[in-house]
Structure formats: structure tokens, C-alpha cells
Specification:
Layout lengths: L1 H8 L3 H26 L11 H20 L6 H16 L9
Helix pairs in contact: 1-2
Amino acid sequence: LVVESMALANRNARLRDAMKEYMRISGELQIAALRKALGGRPLPAMQISLPALASIARWVALGIQREVAQGIDSGHEEVLGLVRDFLAACEQPPNGAAQG
């Protein structure tokens, strides 16, 4: 439904504006819900499987591409920063490994 709505929004400026507002409000509600669920605790450290990581990367790339096409950029810089930080961490030697 979201994909179809975004396709329609490509051809209708009023619908595009409504979609942008919906995405903004939806994002704010999601952040508030996560903040409440965490109750001030930090995000948990987790192990992520490579298949799950590949799926997340694909979804992020497609999602950002779709949102940019609609003029939506909320959270994109933060996500791209997270990706950069993750890739930088992947380049670090494992704990206890000798550098050389």
C-alpha cells in the first residue's frame, strides 16, 4: 500500500505533501515509542547474522532511495552515519589481535 501510495504521489503534488507529512509524523511516533520502550536504558548490543545484515542494508538503500524521490530526508544523515561507523568498526582488528 505504501509503495502504491508513493507511486501515486509521484504524479500528485498534494498527495506527495501529505505523504511527507505522514512520514514525518510516523517517524516521530516511532522514536517516541522506542524511547518509552527503552525507558532511559541504552540500546542493547546484539549479534546480527550476515543474511540479516544484508537484508537490512538492502532495505535501507531502497527505503532511502524511495524517500528521496518523495523529497523526504528525515533521519537519512543519521542512518548514513551509522553505516559509516559500522564499516569503520569492521575495519578495526579484532580485540586482542596484533596490529602489523
